[in-house]
Amino acid sequence: MSKFELTPRYKDAAHFKSYWEKGNGKNIIEWSHAEVNFENFAKKSDLYYQVDDLGDQVIQDFYVNQPFHEVNQKIENYIRNGIPKDEDVPESVKSLFEFSEQVPEWLDHNLLKLGAEACMKTGRDALMSLRDYSLMGGYDYAYLNKPLVFTGALKKGALKRLSETLDFWVNVTRSNAMEVHAKGYEFAIKTRLIHSYARFHLKKYVKDWDYEKMGEPINLWDMTATSNGFSLVLLHGLKKLGNTFTEEEELGMFHLWKYISYLMGVPLEHLPDNKKEATESFYLWTSIQPPSDEDSVYLAQSLVKESLENPILRYQYQRNFLNYIHISSSKFLLDSAVFERLKLPQVWNANFIPKTLKLGNRVMQKYLSRETQIKRGNKLQMHILKQYIGITN
Q: Which residues belong to any copy of the ER-bound oxygenase mpaB/mpaB'/Rubber oxygenase catalytic domain (predicted)?
């Protein structure tokens, strides 16, 4: 039990009510048929003061007293090949890999496949929804971003952060990526330990972290919200851009992120199976998040500037047009109140790009087979990832 008692402190605030009564939240409730209330708040809110204890113990037992590079190489080898039988490792490391390598009975491989294919078939749209809606919109939740601020991750710059997010997302959403020892599985375990390592440093060096207001750094409730950003919010953005999905594809996307989040240390009972459960959970979490602050605006502005400075494109006019596309996309996908709080710039004829994309999607979905869409989308996403990895490395 936490020494703090959490309440839905922003449930009557203007930003909360605007989102859920007039904005995207209202639209998501109607789409998901969610029943939103605060009956389960106490059950969920305990997660705000809980963390991934097993991941944290691995950092304490394995990373703290050894050279980071050597330990990291060992962990990468364990992720890809398992722990050698003759190798002596701490009990926490054994427990982590016993958990990760044990495929749970509830896992449905067909749903995993459908979820991955749903991510791939939407091609560039998925990356736009991820960047301009999930990631940009996430900056509006002030407390969610504080670990980035306190760990100095802001100094990396938006290009590096975007490249890392893209690398993670693409690799966990490919066909068979979540098989034990496969690439997506590797990214899930690595990211779990990165979170624990960041939390270790925060607790060691940051003395003014406000636990009562902001919860534990990278707490389990924030992790469920992040999972919803990759599933619920991303999917909603794709639908706004004119992409259509079968009910099984939607369930597949939630099942995929349920398994990814499970491997990253989030308790199974708090992970949604569908958009209704995800919306009801997201509603509760947003009630404890204040709106944008100065750090939020800084992060948003950095993401805007990323396209203007992107070295992938050779000429400045190309970067200017890319910037126009992303701002137009955010203007279309985000609530107007969020757009204004993040101080995003206005652009001329902002609906032109989204409307063009919607028209193109209607035509593509009518005349291209699902298999062709998946193959085409996967190729495009992998190409864009390769470009980003090339410049950030």
A: 135-349
